[in-house]
Amino acid sequence: MNDTNVSNQVLERLSEEWEALTPEAQKAARYVLENPQDVGISTVREIAEAAKVKPNTFVRMARQVGFDGYDDFREPFREAIRRGAVSFPDRARWLQGIRKSGALGGLYADLVDAAMRNVEETFAGISCESLTAAAEAIWASRDVYTLGVGVNNSNARNFTYLASTGMKQFHAIPQPGSVAVDDLAWAGERDVLIAITCRPYRREVVEAVKQARQQGVTVVGISDSPASPIIRGSDHGFVVAADTPQFFPSSVSTIALLETLLSFVIAVASDEVVGRVETFHKRRHHLGMYEEDPE
Q1: pTM to 2 decimals?
Q2: What three-state secondary structure class fits 43?
């Protein structure tokens, strides 16, 4: 689904109405946000059983966000199914070939399939307009703080490193020996926080987003669910697919999204940024930091 799809508008409405929903209705909404593909094919009893709530909870939830009932709520999702999904028969044959290639062929195929599917699902749910809006907020800001802990610490620092080749106001947090909320102590309405966390959500990231909002900071949230606390607390929220056969969440789509977001920032920036990037790399060559190709 993409932003031109009516079903995606329904998901956005659920996110916007989240705080007004009862705890039971939030359980129903969370299931819809995380499993939109199930809505178009499930009866109210089936989806209620999957979400572990009563059928009436789904009916009340649907009415609270402006629909007459569950059938009316479900219709945009059924329309999305009728339009059909993209098929990749050549990829399927390729993956089958990998799966048969040896003892670890199955694992290899599963990992490759998950990585490509994650990237596709991530960008299918993100519009050019939403990326542009986030990029413009970043470019117009005074300072940009990029927050990630655990595996996302390296993702946040890589984004900051790349951005710093052409722009000065980027800071990866938490800084060594510090905590994120302290690093944001003097941030305000002119600043942006890019926060990244996937399930299980890191408390320090969630708390930093809450604190940033209280200080008027613009928040760009990157997480693996529309129901994530940092997505619901963001001005610009981006959901990344992070499924993997491994024991850790995949970072493939997160990295792809960050690279794309940075490209959009450069695209909306003033012309001087391009010159800065060129100067930065010329300086590195001059200092002998790169192994030069032989003449």
Answers
A1: 0.72
A2: coil
